[in-house]
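I'd like us to work through together how a protein chain folds, taking it slowly. We need material for that, and I hope you will provide a protein of your own picking. Go ahead whenever you are ready, and we will take it from there:
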Amino acid sequence: MNIDTFRDYCLNKKGVTESLPFGPDNLVLKVMGKIFTIVSMEKIPLRVNLKCDPQRAIELREEYDGSILPGYHMNKQHWNTLILDDNLNPKLVFELVDHSYELIVNSLSLKLKKELENL
């Protein structure tokens, strides 16, 4: 999967913005100001960090050993790094983007959830 496909999928979600706060090689995508993915653009194949339920994170790392790793520079209990090579089906990647997005949306304050609904 390339950066354009990944980025477009994320940006089509409600309330998502992008920025480069960690320098030009790390694209950060947020929902209502909260990070749900970081894309490391200097690596080939592309690497992305996604938030994940802790138990599911462990299961994914075991099932996709070498392609899904503990989150690089993140809380390894709650974040995974996906290496977007041919070993990961795009459908799975999009599912995990949705999961990360939903975890963040569910953790938003009531005020932010209401603002998101009204977008």
In short: The domain at 3-113 is CATH 3.90.1150.30 (Aspartate Aminotransferase, domain 1). The CA atoms of residues 25 and 41 lie 5 Å apart. The chain has one domain: 3-113. The beta strands are 16-19, 26-31, 34-40, 47-51, 68-70, 79-83.
